[in-house]
Every structure is written in structure tokens, then in C-alpha cells.
């Protein structure tokens, strides 16, 4: 058994891309709302209220509420947390912690005994809009648990290096899948 403690932080929804999308959606939707209401008040002559102004108000409200939702997910830190691998002490364990939506089940806190860890699996995903790798923790009698941010663009070499170091630390097998 390896001695030591390893802890990997997970950013979750607090990524730069989410901040940028929330910012763009908020100000873009306000522009649509302003233009739609200005056409209703006949402040803009070249846009009629029905149907163009009404559609702009609809999309403005849609974008505004979407930006509020995205802002709240950033504020709440959805999906953020850590993966802790503790080989010290009497009973070594793996702990996976994530933040969820506010409420009774906001904290997802999973503990697995060291002996139940079967292996580490790296899945390489390819597609038109998405390309990346995910590290999974294989657990005896349970489903696989993802350890990396889904959708976080990390190079295959970086994921492979992290997965091999983790498998060596846990003293388990490492497998790759496409």
C-alpha cells in the first residue's frame, strides 16, 4: 500500500468559458430586450413591433434567464470539489466530493475503501465538437466514477501522465479505451 495523501481539485462550473458565456448572454439579451421594447414604444422606426419586436423581446427574455441560470451555477460552484486519495492511517480510502444544487443533497460526498478500487480507466473521446479524455475510477460492485472534469480540454498526454501516476499511487491496473 502506498503512503501519502493526494488531492486533486475539480473546478466544475467555475471555468473561464462559463464566465464569458454568462457575460455575453446577459448583455446580448439586454440588447434584444432594449430593441424590442424600443420598437413597442416606436422609438425605432425601421423595426415593427409585430412580429420583429415581439420576437426580439422573447429572445431577450430567454437569453436573460439563461444568463441568470448560468450565473447561479457559477456562484454555487456546481460540479466543483476534489478527489482525495488517502493512503495514510489505519483505513486508507478514496474520497470524491462535489457540490450540487442548493438543497438537502447539495453535497455529494463518496467514500470508497482502498481495497474496493479495481483500477483506473482512461477513455479517449473523439467527435466533431468534442475531443478529450476522461479518467474513470473502477470500483468493485459499483459503476465507474469520473475523476476529471467532463468537457475540460486536457491533452491526452497530460491525462495519460495523471492517470499513470494515480494508478501507480493506488497500485492498481491502468486501461485505455476509445
From TrEMBL:
Membrane topology annotation: Multi-pass membrane protein
Domain of life, per lineage: Eukaryota
This protein's UniProt keywords: Chloroplast, Membrane, Photosynthesis, Plastid, Thylakoid, Transmembrane, Transmembrane helix
TM region positions: 20-41, 53-78
UniProt KW Cytoplasm keyword: no
InterPro entries: PSI_Ycf4_assembly
Pfam families per record: Ycf4
Biological process terms in GO annotation: photosynthesis
A cellular-component GO term for this protein: chloroplast thylakoid membrane
Cellular location(s): Membrane; Plastid, Chloroplast thylakoid membrane
Function, in words: Seems to be required for the assembly of the photosystem I complex.
Family, similarity comment: Belongs to the Ycf4 family.
HAMAP family named in the record: Ycf4 (MF_00437)
Name of the featured protein: Photosystem I assembly protein Ycf4
Amino acid at each position: 500500500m502506498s503512503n501519502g495523501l493526494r488531492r486533486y481539485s475539480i473546478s466544475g462550473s467555475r471555468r473561464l468559458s462559463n464566465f464569458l458565456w454568462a457575460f455575453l448572454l446577459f448583455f446580448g439579451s439586454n440588447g434584444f430586450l432594449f430593441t424590442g421594447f424600443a420598437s413597442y414604444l416606436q422609438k425605432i422606426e425601421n423595426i415593427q413591433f409585430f412580429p420583429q419586436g415581439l420576437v426580439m423581446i422573447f429572445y431577450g427574455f430567454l437569453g436573460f434567464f439563461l444568463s441568470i441560470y448560468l450565473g447561479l451555477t457559477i456562484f454555487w460552484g456546481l460540479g466543483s470539489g476534489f478527489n482525495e486519495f488517502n493512503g495514510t492511517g489505519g483505513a486508507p480510502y478514496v474520497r470524491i466530493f462535489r457540490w450540487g444544487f442548493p438543497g438537502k443533497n447539495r453535497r455529494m460526498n463518496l467514500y470508497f475503501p482502498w481495497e474496493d478500487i479495481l483500477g483506473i480507466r482512461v477513455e479517449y473521446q473523439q467527435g466533431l465538437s468534442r475531443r478529450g479524455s476522461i479518467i474513470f475510477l473502477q470500483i468493485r460492485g459499483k459503476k465507474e466514477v469520473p475523476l476529471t472534469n467532463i468537457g475540460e480540454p486536457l491533452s491526452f498526454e497530460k491525462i495519460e501522465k495523471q492517470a499513470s501516476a494515480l494508478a501507480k499511487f493506488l497500485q492498481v491496473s491502468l486501461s485505455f479505451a476509445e
